[in-house]
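Notebook, bench 3.
Goal today: get a predicted structure for Transcriptional regulator, MerR family from Marvinbryantia formatexigens DSM 14469 so we can plan the truncation constructs. The sequence was checked against the plasmid map this morning, with no discrepancies at the termini. Length recorded as 122 residues. Pasting the sequence as submitted so the record is complete.
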Amino acid sequence: MKMTIGEISEKTNLPESTLRYYEKMKLIKVIRDKNGRRDYADSDVEWIKFIRRLKETGMLLKDIQQYSELRYMGDSTMPERISILRLHRRYVLEQQRKWNGYLQNLDEKIQYYEQSIKLQNT
């Protein structure tokens, strides 16, 4: 099923301007119909959602561009794509450990305040 930019915007929950930006940055390649309008395929929805997840997990735009370029080159680039994803996975785990430390610190501070309030009220 083919979709317009408005339809894919709804399915991916991304504004049309972001989709145009992704196209400009060569993260997505969109076929155009005979009138020059963007004509998205169903497979573009999951790809766009994956790009968003990469961005939300901190992957740099240049790395997403490289991954995208390899993706569009076909299955023969899978080893290179795996390497990019493995490297990014290590980064995500590192960030997760850092955020777990921040969360523990917050929990300790909350616990300290709760104990202090209890002592004041006794």
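The first helix runs from residue 5 to 12. Strands lie at 31-32, 38-39.
Flagging this for group meeting.
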